[in-house]
# Entry
Amino acid sequence: VQLQVSDCHGNTSTVTVPVTVLDRRPPTVSTLSPTVYLNANGSASLSATALVNATDACGGLVYSPPSVSFNCFQCNQTVSVTVNVRDANGNDTSVVVPVLVRDTIRPVSTSVPSNITVCRTASQVVYVQPNGTDNCGTVSVNQVAGLPSGSNFPVGVTTNTFNLLDVCGNVTQ
# Structure
């Protein structure tokens, strides 16, 4: 910047003064608090821009981490993710973002016992329980109606009902 100074006698002097402009203001960052849904493989990911809104007068924003992955071990939990945003001049802002991880995929039955016909009164019936698979691994089988395998079944029709439950709480009947 050039400065010119004059006195009351009309004398002037010009001097060049170096001016350094510094950006010391960090980016402005706000959290979005998203919910992420696990896919058929039991995983999901979100980019940092899906986790936060960030602005800066000087631009050039860099997000760390650029994306975050989630899995079945986190289902039905709120996971705290730290996101750092740095501007072009090295100013940082870090925030913690709560991310709700959800699994809405129900277990799928892979085997169901066939109907069994018994020709005697009060016959003992042995059958194999149904089972299933799920995107998040283990499936629990719970009988909710009917008689367990090995019981003496009465004359007539007995309907057995089972629930398949995954580790995230999804149920298929």
